């Protein structure tokens, strides 16, 4: 064998179509550069409309372009791996290394023990010599019920493992196996027997979970339960170590007389005064304890919900670790994170593109991240070993021999390794083991391993290696992504930042790849900007994109269409559906405008020394009705949360803007339809896209009645106070184009007509801004006569420089406003008129609860219009003052300034008063 032609244990192939992709990416880059140039060369001059907005757009597009460039590092160099198991077995069948499997669990309430032991059983039954396999369960809750379940599992394994071997079962998680079968598969006697054993066990475990106590009979059968005598709570208990079966023992055999793998339960010590470092702390305790029991040179780490779906994964992995020529540089082999409970169109997004595209790209540059589960490590590299050319894996590392001590003595001795104080004054969590201080301990640990010169491997076999449980509500997904994006950004600012620590140590492409993930959360700024500002400018009628007829339109159109096609192709290519891609887009937006904002802010706060990150464990169970809605792909908004408030507010803002635009286009016909599309097509599309993608959210806000809708407290929060005032104020203030009033020059006489409905309140005002020839200044005013539809006189003002008043129209019809100028000069007059009757119809809301809300919003809108009217009048006055004061004393200028600030104060005060008024009223009307 040795002298014969060397046959590699694995091969690495470059992905197909790379040249084509690179050409495409280059063309996209040209488009992006053109967009940047367009922005740069067309910045509005100071004083021109939309200058600030434009500069912001430029900033956002610079960011998006830069970020897009980073993501190219994940696509440029994709590779795929393939293993040759038969060669491995041929050469090494009798020299296979020991493998230790670490399973982590943290909370029996949201990670049910029955799920945990299914994972444990699946990894115990790998297609691998059992005397070389050890399984360790770390229980961060120290739950006696989880221990009980594990005990049951160790008994069941005596039947399950031979059954798996005999029938070559796949997958080897019993629960998953049973549900994967159809009725016709379930006939033979062996099957009925194993199924009965499993069901009995499951019933016992579920019974104990429900009751919350262990039956006396079980306690009598196993001395291990006595270790819970001193247990006081999840966060306060001594180390509990139990070796349930030890493959060194001749007695631990299955029903066919074959040795069973080693099975160990560990609950490390927890004390309130000692920080436990979440999963990283648990893993490090396992590394130490296992080193004294089995000391396998290979460690597989899985989360408790990730069962093994492929019994050959260990053999596959060993192909990477045992190849004679290429293995010496490989530190870990990462499998993709796939999920068992996904629905067809993945409402809450997926890791599809990361798994199907990006990690292959990382692999081409030196290897993927360590993502915490489904990952095989070399024990020595996980413990901090530096890279050296001859660092081949030591397959013959000695297994700690069976000492003279009995199992109780062994447990007692090793429990010290899992105590709170063991790590004090050591390099654990720093130079040794998984790194502490980061919510994504996995990514950080993988990064530092790669910085030491090691490579990693991404292996995505045909049959998935592991299947886990993904979040089933919007809230859970957002919380999880907050943790991930926060952790990734923390890495960027940490001592181990890919930028300053990784520079020179990592392959540049890999460094950029890490940056892509580290910079997830800062994306929130540009995305927020893009989902607010263009919509607001749309209402204001200011275009922020090139006209359709302009040549600059082309790069925009190209980049948008090409990106959409590319992202959908990648998604479909990775096995998704078109609707799934649309859902992914929505989640892309939601993550960036909620999880990432909070993550970003938290990291910023942390940089300045406050705030602490926690690890919120993702629940793996849900109520029946939640599960049903999940399967129907109905968005589950769940509990009220600040993230949900932000998402709803943004959705409402865009709806407001779109409705405002439609109103203007169709009802008031102020701007022509064609003109609007010519000048603002992209802005309209963007706003329309945002509304379209938010449809499930509007549905949850207004129409849905089930428990998964947006909770009424969030609706109220959005409806009642700050947020609405903010939206309304923004929208009204923005949509005003100062065009409410008219400025005209009057020679002798000038009349205006306005059609008014009965009962409407007509506000009007005028200011004589200036007389012809600025050197001339007269105190002479103008006359204004207001007449009703039948000629009756309503107001008669004589010699006024300015006036502001209102009346209620008692008749429907045309009202006339006639100005007369008696002075010999032309005068410029600012005239403002505004008639309104605010009624809020039921059509706005089907729900009775919303009626009062909309009435208040109506009143608020009216009030805001009045403020605006007032503002206009004051502005006109200020203009007049400014002109009057030209060349006169500066005092008057100050007065104008003073007036302006007074105006602002008055506006704020009004808003404040209104808000309080409504809050009280809403308080009364709330049901
Ligand atoms: O104090 C803790 C907290 C969590 N866990 C375990 O860590 C795993 C991951 O927790 P989960 O809530 O499922 O987080 P996910 O976001 O799904 O996990 C991904 O992201 C984590 C980092 O944020 C990694 O640790 C995980 O391995 C990776 O699968 C679970 O098995 C938990 O039981 C502990 O053991 N102790
Ligand atoms: Mn998980």
Automatic annotation (TrEMBL):
Residue ranges annotated for the GOLD domain, each copy included: 749-835
GO CC aspect terms: Golgi membrane
Gene3D superfamilies named in the record: Spore Coat Polysaccharide Biosynthesis Protein SpsA, Chain A
Membrane topology annotation: Multi-pass membrane protein
Active site (record annotation): 140, 442
Main location: Golgi
Highest taxon, organism lineage: Eukaryota
Keyword set includes Transferase: yes
Binding site for UDP-alpha-D-glucose: 111, 140
Pfam families in the record: Cellulose_synt (PF03552), EMP24_GP25L (PF01105)
Function: Thought to be a Golgi-localized beta-glycan synthase that polymerize the backbones of noncellulosic polysaccharides (hemicelluloses) of plant cell wall.
Protein name (record): Cellulose synthase-like protein E1 isoform X2
Source organism: Nicotiana sylvestris
Gene name in the database record: LOC104240028
């Amino acid at each position: 064998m040795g002298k014969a032609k060397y046959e590699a244990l694995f091969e690495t192939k470059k992905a197909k179509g790379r040249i084509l992709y690179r050409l495409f990416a280059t063309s996209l880059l040209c488009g992006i550069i053109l967009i940047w140039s367009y922005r740069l060369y067309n910045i509005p001059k100071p004083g021109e409309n939309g200058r600030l907005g434009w500069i912001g757009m430029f900033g956002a597009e610079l960011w998006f372009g830069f970020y897009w460039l980073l993501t190219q590092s994940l696509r440029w160099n994709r590779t795929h791996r393939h293993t040759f198991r038969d060669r491995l077995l041929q050469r090494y069948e009798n020299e296979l290394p020991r493998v230790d499997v670490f399973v982590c669990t943290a909370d029996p309430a949201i990670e049910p023990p029955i799920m945990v032991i299914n994972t444990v059983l699946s990894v115990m039954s790998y297609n691998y010599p059992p005397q070389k396999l050890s399984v360790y369960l770390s229980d961060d809750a120290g739950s006696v019920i989880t221990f009980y379940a594990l005990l049951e599992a160790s008994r069941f394994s005596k039947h399950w493992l031979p059954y798996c071997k005999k029938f070559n079962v796949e997958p080897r998680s019993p629960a998953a196996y049973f549900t994967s079968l159809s009725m016709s598969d379930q006939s033979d006697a062996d099957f009925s027997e194993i199924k009965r054993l499993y069901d009995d066990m499951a019933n016992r475990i579920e019974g104990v979970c429900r009751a919350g106590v262990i039956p006396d009979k079980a306690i009598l059968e196993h001395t291990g339960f006595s270790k819970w005598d001193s247990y006081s709570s999840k966060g306060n208990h001594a180390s509990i170590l139990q070796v349930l079966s030890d493959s060194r023992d001749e007695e631990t055999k299955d029903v066919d007389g074959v040795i069973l793998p080693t099975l160990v339960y560990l609950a490390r010590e927890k004390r309130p005064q000692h920080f436990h470092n979440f999963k990283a702390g648990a893993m490090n305790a396992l590394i130490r304890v296992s080193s004294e029991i089995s000391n396998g040179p290979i460690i597989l780490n899985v989360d408790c919900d990730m069962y093994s779906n492929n019994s050959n994964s260990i053999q596959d992995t060993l192909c990477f670790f045992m190849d004679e020529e290429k293995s010496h540089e490989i530190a870990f082999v990462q499998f993709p994170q796939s999920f068992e409970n996904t629905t067809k169109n993945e409402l809450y997004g997926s890791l599809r593109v990361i798994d199907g595209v990006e990690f292959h790209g990382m692999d081409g540059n030196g290897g993927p991240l360590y993502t915490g589960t489904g990952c095989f490590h070399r024990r020595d590299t996980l413990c901090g070993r530096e890279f050296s050319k001859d660092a081949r894996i030591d397959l013959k590392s000695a297994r700690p021999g069976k000492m003279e001590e009995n199992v109780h003595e062994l447990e007692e001795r090793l429990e010290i390794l899992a105590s709170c104080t063991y790590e004090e004054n050591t390099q654990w969590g720093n130079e040794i083991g998984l790194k502490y201080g980061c919510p994504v301990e996995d990514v950080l640990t993988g990064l530092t391993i790669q910085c030491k010169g090691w490579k990693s491997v991404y292996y995505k076999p045909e049959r998935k290696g592991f299947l886990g449980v993904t979040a089933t509500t919007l809230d859970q997904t957002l919380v999880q992504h907050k943790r991930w994006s926060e952790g990734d950004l923390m890495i960027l600012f940490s001592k181990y930042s890919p930028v300053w620590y990784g520079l020179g140590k990592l392959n540049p492409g890999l460094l950029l790849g890490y940056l892509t993930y580290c910079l997830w959360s800062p994306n929130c700024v540009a995305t927020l900007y893009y989902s607010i500002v263009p919509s607001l400018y749309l209402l204001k009628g200011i275009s922020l994109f090139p006209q359709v007829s302009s040549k600059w339109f082309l790069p925009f159109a190209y980049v948008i269409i090409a990106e959409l096609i590319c992202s959908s192709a990648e998604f479909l290519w990775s096995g998704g559906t078109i609707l799934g891609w649309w859902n992914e887009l929505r989640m892309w937006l939601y993550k960036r405008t909620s999880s990432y904002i909070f993550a970003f802010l938290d990291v910023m706060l942390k940089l300045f020394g406050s705030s602490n990150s926690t690890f919120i464990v993702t629940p793996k169970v849900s109520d029946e009705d939640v599960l049903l809605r999940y399967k129907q792909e109905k968005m589950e908004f769940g509990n009220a949360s600040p993230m949900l408030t932000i998402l709803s507010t943004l959705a409402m803002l865009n709806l407001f803007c779109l409705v405002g635009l439609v109103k203007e286009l169709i009802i008031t016909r102020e701007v022509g339809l064609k003109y609007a599309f010519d000048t603002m097509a992209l802005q309209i599309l963007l706003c329309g896209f945002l509304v379209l993608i938010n449809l499930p959210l509007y549905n949850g806000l207004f129409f849905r009645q089930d428990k998964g809708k947006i909770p009424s407290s969030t609706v109220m929060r959005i409806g009642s106070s700050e947020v609405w005032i903010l939206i309304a104020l923004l929208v009204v203030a923005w949509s005003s184009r100062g065009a409410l009033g008219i400025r005209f020059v009057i020679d002798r006489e000038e009349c205006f007509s306005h059609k008014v409905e009965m009962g409407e309140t007509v506000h009007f005002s005028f200011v004589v801004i200036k007389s012809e020839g600025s050197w001339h200044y007269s105190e002479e005013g103008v006359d204004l006569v207001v007449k009703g539809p039948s000629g009756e006189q309503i107001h008669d003002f004589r010699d006024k420089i300015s006036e502001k008043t209102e009346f209620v129209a008692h008749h429907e019809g045309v009202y006339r406003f006639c100005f007369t100028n008696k002075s010999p000069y032309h005068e410029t007059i600012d005239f403002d008129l505004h008639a309104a009757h605010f009624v809020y119809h039921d059509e706005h809301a089907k729900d009775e609860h919303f009626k009062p809300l909309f009435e208040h919003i109506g009143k608020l809108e009216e009030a805001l219009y009045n403020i605006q009217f007032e503002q206009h009048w004051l502005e006109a006055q200020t203009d007049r003052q400014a002109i009057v004061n030209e060349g006169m004393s500066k005092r008057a200028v100050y007065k104008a300034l003073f007036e302006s600030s007074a105006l602002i104060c008055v506006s704020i005060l009004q808003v404040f008063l209104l808000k309080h008024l409504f809050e009280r009223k809403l308080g009364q009307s709330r049901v």
